[in-house]
Amino acid sequence: METPTRVLIYEDNSDLRASLSQLLAGTQGLELVGALGNCMQATTDIARLTPDVILMDIDMPGITGIEGLRRIKKVAPQVNVVMLTVFEDNDRVFEAICAGADGYLLKKTPPAKLLDAISEVRLGGAPMTPAIARQVLRLFPRSKPMVTVPDESPANLSAREQEILGLLVEGYSYKMIAADRGISIDTVRSHIKKIYEKLHVRSMTEAVSKALRQGLT
């Protein structure tokens, strides 16, 4: 039997926290390990509850969700953190991405889409609402492409790796890339592992950020 994905919620709005808890607790394949009103004890919470995925509100009392995100990534970089917020402004999006957010969704995201996002981030994707994804693309000005030999990018990516990196930049999940390119998810994972190695990054967010800054796609 497949091990359920352990999810932790940080949300200071009690009504929303209760509705999210009910949604997650009633979903097969997920295990709600906690629903907390602030992230002031984030590092202790992580050690105690060992979540796989965290849904993190940005605007909370005590310390912000972005500061909580930084603390979590420092002690448990393998934990996927998806920011849940009412904010769409560039500064918050940029700050969250730089702090290591694995996804960024609006609180008005429909329940089914939220559940899809949890699955996607566990597969290595970076779930974002379309409005947020467009802002992310605008945050990083594309540099002029360097002159390169055929089938190579400035980071020595193969033609296939460049294709896949381009799809990641557009917000595709592993499943979507596999379907679009007609390859298996394992093959996608293999390509992305090589992309990470060549770009000297450790996460989807870092890879997309570097691709946009250096004009690699």
From TrEMBL:
One of its GO terms (biological process) is regulation of DNA-templated transcription. It holds the Pfam family Response_reg. Keywords: DNA-binding, Phosphoprotein. The lineage of its organism: Bacteria, Pseudomonadati, Bacteroidota, Cytophagia, Cytophagales. This is Response regulator transcription factor. PANTHER family: TRANSCRIPTIONAL REGULATORY PROTEIN YDFI, TWO-COMPONENT RESPONSE REGULATOR. InterPro entries: CheY-like_superfamily (IPR011006), NreC/VraR/RcsB-like_REC (IPR058245), Sig_transdc_resp-reg_C-effctor (IPR016032), Sig_transdc_resp-reg_receiver (IPR001789), Tscrpt_reg_LuxR_C (IPR000792), WalR-like (IPR039420). PROSITE patterns: HTH_LUXR_2, RESPONSE_REGULATORY. Residues 6-122 form the Response regulatory domain. Residues 150-215 form the HTH luxR-type domain. It comes from Hymenobacter elongatus. GO terms for molecular function: DNA binding. It comes from the Bacteria. SUPFAM superfamilies: C-terminal effector domain of the bipartite response regulators (SSF46894), CheY-like (SSF52172). The modification 4-aspartylphosphate is found at residue 57. Signal peptide: none annotated.
